[in-house]
Amino acid sequence: MTAERVPVPRWVLVPAALGAALVVLPLVALAARVDPAQLAGLVTSEGARAALGLSLRAAAVSTMVCVLLGVPLALVLARGAGRGTTVLRALVLVPLVLPPVVGGLALLMTFGRRGLLGRYLEVAGVQIAFSTTAVVLAQVFVALPFLVLTLEGALRTAGTRYERVAATLGARPTTVLRRVTVPLVAPGLASGAVLAFARALGEFGATLTFAGSLQGVTRTLPLEVYLQRETDPDAAVALSLVLVLVAVVVVVLTHARRPVVAA
Amino acid sequence: MSGTPAGTPAPGLTVHAVVRERDVDLRVEPGPGRVTAVIGPNGAGKSTLLGVVAGLVSPDAGRVVLGDHVLTDTDRGVRVPVHARRTVLLGQEPLLLPHLDVLGNVAFGPRSAGERRGDAERRALAVLEELDLTDLARRRPAQLSGGQAQRVAIARALAASPDLLLLDEPLAALDVDVAPAVRRLLARVLRGRTALVVTHDLLDVLALADDVLVVEGGRVVEHGPTREVLGRPRSRFAARLADLNLVLGTATDDGLVAGGVRLVGLRDEGCAPGDPAAAVFAPSAVAVHVEPPSGSPRNVLTARVRQTELRGAVVRLHVECTGSVAAEDGAAMTVHADVTAAAATDLDLVPGRDVHLAVKATEIAVHAARR
Asked: Which of A160, A164, A165 is the mutation pick for testing B, counting most B CBs within 10 A?
């Protein structure tokens, strides 16, 4: 049986094609600029390798932090009720719409030497700004909403019926969380984590503002691309292609959803 | 298997629950080790009752005591959390955890109680074996049929060794050809346990329940042994549910025998000859004759009209089967028969009139019942 499709007006196809071209064409242009013979050399220069390594490590740590903080946050948002939850949800989403530079500045005001918390940390001998820790903090700041949003949606879809059954079978709340809730939303958690990883990997503005651009310490791949663009455009394009590749892998991973229930 | 009737005696339950939002004020005291069918119209408060007992619904006022344990007491601020109440709820849908196989699902209760994995799985296997489900142990819930899944859900509930089983229309979502077998299984495993079973199905009441509790408008309107409530219903709902002739007796090869009366009918596969059973037939299926009827009817009873009741164009006759004795209290068996008002007049069917009742064998269904 094939259901009759709802007809789409033909003229819609024109702007739709334009939109698609706007997304695809620049990627094609980028790929076309790269000389395959030079690619390997450009991507493996010392600066590039340092930036790529730092980016992957920082994004991996950021993703872990996002999971550790984001799962409880999503739980509170999905299961909570009342005004407090509504306000909290709005606040958590702020980094999603905030220019990353502003986020970086806000982080600096918090963790910088004279910042809200930074002044006490300074006394304790801890400096966060312009360190790799700052890179991670900046990435968590911008990536957390992606994980929380995705997971909250998954939690709402999963509902609470299984959790109730588990409770009547004698499972304590922590057991229910570990053995029922998390396994049920595992696909949602996975795609949320992948999205957060991707966002962390691409983070630029907040990182530059809050962490600076120190090779091997805070200069992540996007920063390296920006820097190389001035001196060696070919290298910048080659590194960009690496980021495009990562993005493609991420998109494939998040869209190839495994079904919750095995067939 | 722990939690079976062979272990510690089944605890009794006392419930008083007031939920104002739903206009519910229920006082219930189901007997220990007895299965109580909870019946009533939609929205009467049946599921609210189960929710309050399970701890899923907080009453505005009330008290729930199971055995020696006070589970809820609004006066003293007691509210034992759901997981510590030892009351397992089984609903229409099996709700097996999709990420665990059957064994993992059945072992979930014991595991949650702190048993080690090996012990929990051994216990789960024992329950699966008792319920003849061993073959399914390694299947995923998605690989089970509806009937299989509900059986596994029953096994999972039993493996948690609850003090009280709460069943909310456990057979309502099953196909009609699957339900009888699951009902038989439930009848077997519920025996001797304290359980509340919400149902709309007369067959569930007959096969599962020792007692019937009728809830209407958030209040208990009737509570007593199944036989009494269905035999002489005082509440509107029980009367409607039992608006069928119900003859309780013993199943035979081709029907049922009860108090000296032998009825030929269609015995369902749920009861074997010699089992306690109920013959069920509609008042409209009873033909009333003044002379002994000729022709094919297999069931002919001599009887006397006791009472007539006009229901629109139909007259309902309350007829006493002469020569019969209903099993326990020595009263004669009473049967309802519907005839048209014209027939009632023509045949002069007034109280005291001797008649012959004929019922076709195909109109009588014989189902398993509890004694």
From this structure: A165
Chunked into runs of 10 residues, chain B (371 residues) has average pLDDT values of 56 92 92 92 90 93 93 93 94 94 96 94 95 94 94 95 94 88 91 93 88 91 85 71 79 85 83 84 87 77 86 84 60 82 85 88 83 62
Question: Among A161, A168, A184, whose Cβ lies nearest the Cβ of B82?
Answer: A168
Chain B interface, Cβ < 8 Å to A? 54, 56, 81-89, 93, 95, 97-99, 108-109, 111-113, 140-142, 156-157, 160, 166
Q: Number of C-alpha atoms within 13 angstroms, CB side, residue A117? A: 9
Compute how many other C-beta atoms are within 10 angstroms of the C-beta atom of residue A58: 27
For chain B, how many helices (H) and strands (E)?
A: 10, 22
Q: Where are the alpha helices (DSSP H) in B34-145?
A: 46-54, 102-106, 108-112, 117-130
Instruction: Tell me how far CA of residue A150 lies from CA of A66, A73, A219, B79, B209, in angstroms.
Output: 12, 12, 29, 34, 47
Sign for the CA dihedral angle at B241, B21, B14, B51 comes to: positive
Q: What is the DSSP letter of B17?
A: E
pLDDT at A250 over 90: no
What residue in B sits closest to A181 (Cα-Cα)?
A: B97
Q: Which one of B98, B112, B166 has the shortest CB-CB distance to A170?
A: B112
Domains of chain A in sequence order: 38-256 (1.10.3720.10)
- Both structure tokens of B29: 């005291």
Determine contact, residues B36/B213, Cβ cutoff 8 Å: yes
pLDDT digits (tens, 9 = 90+) for A8-52: 899 999 999 999 999 999 999 988 888 888 888 878 888 888 888
Residue B120 is predicted with a pLDDT of 95
- Interface mutation target, options A168, A175, A182, chain B, most CBs of B under 10 Å: A168
Determine the pLDDT at residue B331.
Answer: 62
pLDDT, position B4: 46
Write down the number of H helices and E strands in chain A. 14, 0
Which residues of chain A are at the B interface, by a Cβ-Cβ cutoff of 8 Å? 161-162, 164-173, 175-176, 179-180, 183-184, 186, 260-263
Sign of CA dihedral A177, A181, A183, A188: negative
Contact B160 A184 (CB under 8 A): no
Q: Which one-letter amino acid corresponds to residue B299? A: N
Quote the pTM value: 0.77
Chain B residue whose CA is closest to A261: B98
Q: How close B202 comes to chain A (CA, Å)?
A: 27
Asked if A167 and B95 come within 8 Å (Cβ–Cβ), the reply is: no
Q: Would you state the torsion angle of the CA atoms of residues A81, A85, A90, A95, taken in this order, to the nearest 10 degrees?
A: -130
Kindly report, residue by residue over A49-99, the tens digit of the pLDDT: 888 899 999 999 999 999 999 999 999 999 888 888 999 999 988 998 899
